[in-house]
Structures are given as structure tokens and as C-alpha cells.
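Hi R.,

Here's the input for the FE2/S2 (inorganic) cluster complex you asked about:
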Amino acid sequence: MSYFDKRPPVKRYEHGSRVPGWDEAVDLTKPPATVPDPALTPVPAELREKIEAAMALYPDSKSASIPALHLAQQHHGWCSPEAIEQVACVMQLTPAYLTSVASFYDMFALTPKPKHDVYVCTNISCSLLGADEFYEQMCASAHGHEDIGVRGFECLGACDIGPMASVNGEYVGPLNLFDAQLIVEDLEAGRPVLEHKQLRNRAVADPQGRVADWTGIDPVGQEG
Ligand code: FES
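And here is the predicted structure with FE2/S2 (inorganic) cluster in place:
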């Protein structure tokens, strides 16, 4: 039986959607959404600075919604109502708008999540190279480590290093079964994960290809 056969069915609500309430009529009695008042909404200085840096990259600062939400999630551990309120305050948007963005993309967590995200690509290229077995091994190695969340993922766009995984946003591969335990050990020790297998450390023709990412997010939790 393959991993796909054992995967639990996708939960659906009564109306058939995986998202609750999409077909519910708007409640016109609710007060209109408002932009948080900066005087009443404390925002951590470091988070504010990073969000403003992301906003500065776009002609329309609203375009920075996704990187700003990533920054808030990184700061708070998840996209809590407080985190969304802070992003809304800095960007001068409504929390409702940002919630609609965050709820569309499943890499944003609207409920508390484990500290570490291990996304194992189980799409076709990686699958042909043993990703399903690696996924099972990764689940087994992370079992009992409540701060490590493991999930299968569709193509992460790094098929050339398959089988691969994204660990807190750090791409690592090609992976073998022994790497699963090493990933757990690196995460628990607070070390860079599988440094010798990180995509960012592979030789590239263009040295500029390695510049720090523009969001300021350091996938391994250290400033770049
Ligand atoms: S199939 Fe795994 S990264 Fe593309």
C-alpha cells in the first residue's frame, strides 16, 4: 500500500468545500471592517521594520501582504489575530483583508502550529526517487517531537535535488532515509539543517543568485 493509499481523506464540510462558510451570506449587521489605529496597536519594532522594508519593494504596498504575513507568522509562530492586527496596522489594511489572504494559502497557520515545518515533496519527480519512503521515515523520526510538523507537499520546484524537503523554508536534498533522523537532531539542537545538502550552498553560475532573500526571513531562524 502506498503513502497515497494511506493518506487520510481530505476533510470536507457539508457544502462540499474544504473551507468553512464560503457560501454563507455576508452579515450586513456587522460593523464595517476598520484599519487598526496605530496609537492603539503596539507592533514590535523589529517586525514593523521588516514589514516596512517589504512594502518598500512594491509600487502598491498592498502587494507586500504575503511577505508581511510570513514575517508575522515567523515572529509570532502563527498568524494569530494579534499578528494579523499588527500587520494590518503597519500596512494600513483591514485585518479582514489580510485574513482572507492568509486563509487562502495553506502555508499560513490561522491556528497554533508546531514550531518547525518539514514539508516533504511527494510529487512525481521526488516520488520516483524515493520520496514516499522518505516521508514515512521522516514521520517516524519526528514522532514524539511535538515541535516538528511533517507533511507531504506538492512539487516545491526543486526537482533537481529530489527527493527533497523544505525545512522551515530551507531546501535540502537529495535526501536519503538516514537524513530524516539528522533533520530532527539538527532542529532540536538549533543547528542549520543538513547544511551540506542545502540548496543555497550548491554551486551556482551566478554568485548573485545567492543573495539573501528579500523578505528578510531567515529560514533557519538566524539573521542573514
Ligand atoms: S517533484 Fe519534488 S521538487 Fe518537484
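One thing worth noting: Residues 177-189 form the longest helix (13 residues).

Cheers,
M.
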